[in-house]
Amino acid sequence: MTLRPHARKGRHSGKYALVAPATMMILCIALFPLLYSVVVSFQNIDVRTPVGTFVGLKNYFDVLRDARFWNALGNTALIMTVCVTAELVLGFILAQTLIGPLPGKRFITPLLILPVVIAPLIVGYTWRMLWDTQYGPISQVLGWIAGRPVEIVWLANPATVWPAIFITEIWQWTPFMFLVLLAGLAAINPEYREAAEIDGASSWQVLRFVTLPLVWPVMAVAILFRALDAFKVFDIVFALTNGGPGTMTETVSLYAYSVGFRNFRISYMAALTLILIAIVSVAITVLWRRMSANQERMA
Amino acid sequence: MTTRAVESIAPAATRPRRGRHKARAYAWRYALIAAALIFFSFPAFWITTIAFKSSSEYFRNPPVWIPANPNIAQNLEKVIRTGGLTAIGNSLIVTVSATAIALVVGTLAAYSLARFNTGGNNFAFWILSQRFLPPVSVVFPVFLLFRVLRWVDTFHGLIILYATFSLPFVVWMMRSYIREVPVEVEESAQVDGASRLRTIVSITLPLASPGLIATGIFTFIFNWNEFLFALVLSRTNVITYPVKLTSYFGPESAFWGEAATVSLIATLPVVIATLLMQRYLATGLTLGAVK
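Above: the input entities. Below: the structure tokens describing the complete assembly.
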């Protein structure tokens, strides 16, 4: 209703009024606090000093000298590399298996994609019960195969805690890769593949020189999406190990959380989160270029 | 259609023996699919059986796979006693309100971006980029702000936060759905004297309604599954179900029956919604990068 007086002026008027509420919300709830945290990051506020004084870049240098920060960053990079790679390979194999007509496909696909929409925290706690040494079925089944009781404390043993986290992550997100790659593969004109086959290309050559190059634009977006998400990983690790044993599996998000909300090192936390945003911004820019390139290609 | 696709699976050189190869190719595919189905559905099976077990059954070594007397009432009663259902109710209030606000505010902005390219591509990208920021970086400044406003542990605090961080998704998705509505339909309505807002509500949105419904359901799911914001901003008044779940797993104690039952109740609606929205899932999860 408020738009009416403007609407008479011309067909483009009112366009700013329409974006105003959304812009205001993002400015007030997202951007203004972020700018405030930039100010805080140059001070020395913590639980004992509620009113800070200016300390310049000290907090930023402290973060960069913080061994626990680098440990967490390394762990996050490890999860990103191992899980996104495994999800990509497994998701691609699954998508290749399900492409083309297959009796029962209508019922198979929905079952395979469900993990994607389950809350990551629920996934974490569910797998925590699955990995349980005494009451979990994983140790039990491995015991059947080994022929003797398997008593591995999966989530506290340094040798097994990473595989346990990886498998849980891979369980939740392989379906994402599968779903996106299935859509990407389905969009490829089958005539390209047929032409290559008529020319005598082996199935490996068809995959390497026809299918992969054609599905790559979609694949690249999927990888970037998953990598950005994996960088933020919090819920699953929180539920499985909460960063333990010790700080062995602590991710950057878990570390930032404990700095800010367990130790209340407010200025330090501000500097830390701004460094994380800087890291992510690089990846976001790459993703954005990719997405706009894809959009132009589709248009 | 069928024969053509099968030929592309079996190498061209083996066509004379196509029958046997076809059968072998199918056998391989189904074996792989069966393995995948077991892997991806087993955790769901396990959590469901725990919800139907008594505590003497889920804490037994070796584990029991099928409960002797499947009964969810005993766990449900414990969930109610420990405030699990209240937490699910809180989640419902927060998620539905935030989704509704984000849909209204976001769709208006999306309309402006779709029709007038308001602010250009950079503005659209600025909105979108909010979505990729690590939640832990976002929630910390918000926590500082909410502490001053005394919005910590309130419904309106969480609702506004969730609504704001749903906007990038809503704006981005609705922008592409509105673009698919031909602009000529709107022009004829405006010639008849309808205001801009009226045109949007009675002409554009009905035509974009499948996209609007899909966007709404996905926004609901993302907010429903959110944990970190709630963990930071809820104390005692507004505990959402993920925060409640953490209280079932202490260092010394574990309430598996309660946790499994809450997880099951919280996941069922999401699963049903996903099955209905399957067609839109790839698009929704990649912000329209994949159609």
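Note for the figure: The radius of gyration of chain A is 25 Å.
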